[in-house]
Prior knowledge:
Elements: H1 3-6, H2 15-30, E1 34-37, E2 45-47, H3 49-53, H4 55-66, H5 73-102, E3 107-110, H6 112-132, H7 136-156, H8 163-170, H9 172-206, H10 208-223, H11 226-243, H12 257-281, H13 285-293, H14 298-328, H15 341-349, H16 353-385
Antiparallel strand pairs: 1-2, 1-3
Helix pairs in contact: 2-4, 2-6, 4-5, 5-6, 7-16, 8-16, 9-10, 9-12, 9-14, 10-12, 11-12, 12-14, 13-14, 14-16, 15-16
Amino acid sequence: MSxxxxxxxxRGIEGAALVFAVPAVAGLMALPFLTVRPNRIxxxxxxxxWEAAGGLAVAALLAAALVPLISGPALRGGxxxxxxxxxxxxxxxxxxxxxxxxxDLARISLGGGFWLMVASFALAAAEGLSRLEPPPxxxxxxxxxxxxxxxTALVSGWxxxxxxxxxxxxxxxxxxxxxxxxxxxxxxxLLPALAIGLPLGRACFASPRWRRAAIPILNILxxxxxxxxxxxxxxxxxxxxxxxxxxxxxxxxxxGATPALIALTLYSLLPIVTNTVAGFAAIPAQSxxxxxxxxxxxxxxxxxxxxxxxAPIILTGVRIVVVQNxxxxxxxxxxxxxxxxxxxxxxxxxxxxxxxLLGTLPIVALAxxxxxxxxxxxxxxxxxxx
Length: 386
């Protein structure tokens, strides 16, 4: 092999990867990798990467430093994924070792250096893989593979020494309830939003009068702060339940999931309506003319021609709504709506940051998985159109 071929992966510094790598190296040097506390309440002592990992720390720093030098997106993405795996391996190993030394009451928390390392490697991996533009099914397969690997590590007990896992064991029932409650809020708001937004979007596309009337109202709803929206809905709902007590049997109340579902549905309308309008507007006139020439009725043209062609853009709006509502659903806990926000606000009240993380990390994971899955579906639909 020639020297030029051997040096090919290192021909130039990748600017985007450099942005990811510099904070990782600096953070690992200056910020603690883990924090060791004698119990749940008191503050702890920092544990830096080089103190915890020795030679493996050098490997992690070397990987972070090499990432921006690698010009090949596949090699850069692979090295970044290996960096994330190394960080997770180190954190599980060191948490068990430190917990055994400090006793069962000790808490081993993730430090700023760990988060910078994982975030930087993950962003570098995403940047490298995005340049490769893998096909949708491959993206789904890689996502499933990484999820399965992480799930296997969780089930095996590799991370049991971490404080966040101790919080999970103490709040397992609440976590399960929060998980299903969060899915209920997201899914329960998406379905009525689609039932309202798709016909309204179609009407706005067909009629400028509808568009001039509906879009400004939806813009106002979208810009209303979530806390204000929940509060505004609580008063009329409470009055409605007082006037019609039988609604309580259906689960309707001034607080809880009902105002949260209505608010999330209202927030979902603008992206769905505007993307529906854009989807129908993007349909080539020749496609409609061909459908009419084949004798299609107005309904047949809508179902067989227009909706399939507009589907990728409409689904882009659905993706925005799903990711948006996954985040907004956390605020619903303030009015008793359930979801992962329950754990977040409970942890804030107890000054237990690991409990906050127990509610926050699943929200982030759900948003990432939803984005990857829906993006893959959109790309599959676009490929089918071609």
